[in-house]
Structures are given as C-alpha cells and as structure tokens.
Design goal:
The chain is mainly α. The protein is built from 8 helices and no strands.
Length: 167
C-alpha cells in the first residue's frame, strides 16, 4: 500500500488537491471496522454480533406487522382497486419472468440456469418494497395488495412455471 501511495505521489507531485483526496480516502478506508477486522483477523465481539442479529430478526416481524396494520386500516382487502391489482399481478407474474428471460439470454444463460432464473422471477415479492413504499408514500396501497395477493397466487404460478420449464 505504501508503494502505491509513493507511486501516486510521484505522479501527482505538483497537484496537491489530488494528493489530499487520496490521503483522505486512504485514511477513511483504514478507519472502518470492516477493513480493520478483515486485515488483522479481528472479529466482532459476540455481544455486538448477537445484538445486531436480534435487531435484524426483529425487522421482518415489524415489517409484517406494519403491512398488517396498513391492510387493517383499509376499507377493503383490495386497497388499490381491482384493475390496479390485476395489472400489478400481470406485471409481476408475466412481465417479470419475460424480462428476466430476455436479460438472462442476453448475458448468455442457457439450460437449467435460465430456467431457475425464470422461476425465481416468478416468486412473490418480499415485504421490504412495501416498507419503502409506505415510508416514502409511493403507492403503498398497490404494494400492499401486490404483496398479499402475490403470496396467495405465487404457489400455483410458480408450480406452473416449474412444470412448463421442465425442472
């Protein structure tokens, strides 16, 4: 690392601003706990690791609770209307796998990997997109309906894709 810095300093000896940026970048990178732990094989204390694990495990439960509370406050179970629900399901389960298959073929996936990618694209979306939609108030009614009905119809649609692709 020192040799790299000496090489860079010889290249930009007259340009003080660039040298300052490189120094600041190096200083910030070495201060981070991830880089220090990886470099010197120092692990996180068990109590901190368990605390982070507990918080991350509670996050999914809180997101599900938030989705349930939002759905309970809606006047009907299809909060966004029937036409928006049908369009969101069609986009999720028809356009999603179509786009995934086109992108997979474009990058050269063939055979079983292509089939697995298409089936994964047909799986239901998670709860995290609803959390972001609710937080930023960007169509949370459509996302809540898509999450609920997506989970209900995901099994038959995924099985259909599984059978059609011969996996």
């Amino acid at each position: 690392m020192v040799q790299l810095l000496l090489f860079l300093s010889s290249l930009v000896a007259n340009d003080v601003d660039l040298w300052c940026y490189i120094y600041i970048l190096f200083r910030e990178l070495t201060k981070g706990p991830c880089s220090l732990g990886h470099r010197w094989h120092v692990s996180m204390p068990a109590i901190v690791e368990k605390s982070i694990s507990i918080l991350s495990d509670a996050g999914l439960g809180m997101a599900m609770f938030s989705l349930g509370l939002f759905m309970a406050l809606q006047p009907s179970i299809i909060a966004c209307g029937k036409s928006a629900a049908v369009v969101s399901m069609a986009v999720r389960f028809l356009a999603g796998p179509a786009v995934m298959s086109a992108a997979s073929i474009a990058i050269g996936l063939r055979g079983t990997l292509l089939h697995v990618a298409i089936v994964q694209a047909a799986l239901p979306q998670g709860i995290v997109p609803f959390v972001f939609a609710k937080e930023y108030n960007v169509h949370p009614a459509i996302l809540s309906t898509a999450v609920i009905f997506g989970m209900l119809i995901a099994l038959p649609i995924t099985l259909l894709y599984y059978i059609l692709l011969g996996l």
